[in-house]
TrEMBL record:
The keyword Signal applies. It holds the Pfam family DUF1579. InterPro entries: DUF1579 (IPR011473). It comes from the Bacteria. Residues 1-41 form the signal peptide. Keywords: Signal. This is DUF1579 domain-containing protein. The lineage of its organism: Bacteria, Pseudomonadati, Acidobacteriota, Terriglobia, Terriglobales.
Length: 205
């Protein structure tokens, strides 16, 4: 009889211990499941960083007037252009459409400016109606932007550097220099841009 009572209590204690373990295990599983679902939940679209916001200066329509100097096969002479820039959907890139005329004749172009957080540089890609594709990288220091690019002119290697100074919110100066096959840089273009429309707010996707 005593043995029977002891056995019964032992069985009850064992069942209670099992229930406690199952309850703890269930709680742990629930916690891990909630954490996993939270990690997998969509965080929303990425947002442009503060570096991208500096490109806002370009938004609007600009009238550009300047003069080109002869360089290699390129003739010199005055040039004019109109460029309209706006935020591309998502707010990561500024898209510009330009149209103008100069010593080489009329020309149209479309360009995109952005920021590469991996290389920590600004990027510029332009495609023109004359078949040129321009890729450039840039940095900004205060009100001065510096861009560099490499290209080919026949068999010659051409290094390009562009300096843009923001004189005010509605005016900038532009200087383009070129070097051939590692030689000294020469000023090839100088221009001034004036904004003729107010900036539009950044577009959202």
């Amino acid at each position: 009889m005593t043995f029977h009572v002891t056995y019964t209590r032992s069985g009850a204690d064992s069942k209670e211990a099992i229930m406690k373990k199952m309850t703890i295990l269930l709680a742990v599983c629930t916690m891990f499941l909630a954490t996993s679902l939270q990690a997998q939940a969509p965080q929303g679209p990425p947002k442009p960083g503060p570096e991208v916001k500096k490109l806002d200066y370009n938004i609007g329509t600009w009238k550009v007037e300047g003069e080109a100097k002869p360089f290699g096969p390129m003739p010199g002479g005055k040039f004019t252009s109109t460029e309209t820039c706006e935020w591309y959907s998502g707010g990561f890139f500024v898209m510009c459409h330009s149209e103008g005329a100069g010593p080489m004749g009329p020309e149209k172009g479309v360009s995109f400016m952005g920021y590469d957080p991996n290389e920590k540089v600004y990027t510029y890609h332009e495609f023109t109606s004359t078949g040129d594709a321009i890729d450039s990288k840039g940095t900004v220091n205060g009100d001065t932007w510096n861009w560099t690019a490499e290209s080919k002119m026949g068999d010659a290697k051409i290094s390009v550097r562009v300096t843009i100074k923001q004189v005010s919110q509605t005016e900038y100066t532009f200087k383009l220099e070129m070097s051939q096959n590692g030689g000294e840089f020469s000023v090839v273009e100088e221009a001034t841009g004036h904004k003729v429309t107010a900036a539009d707010p950044a577009k959202k996707s």
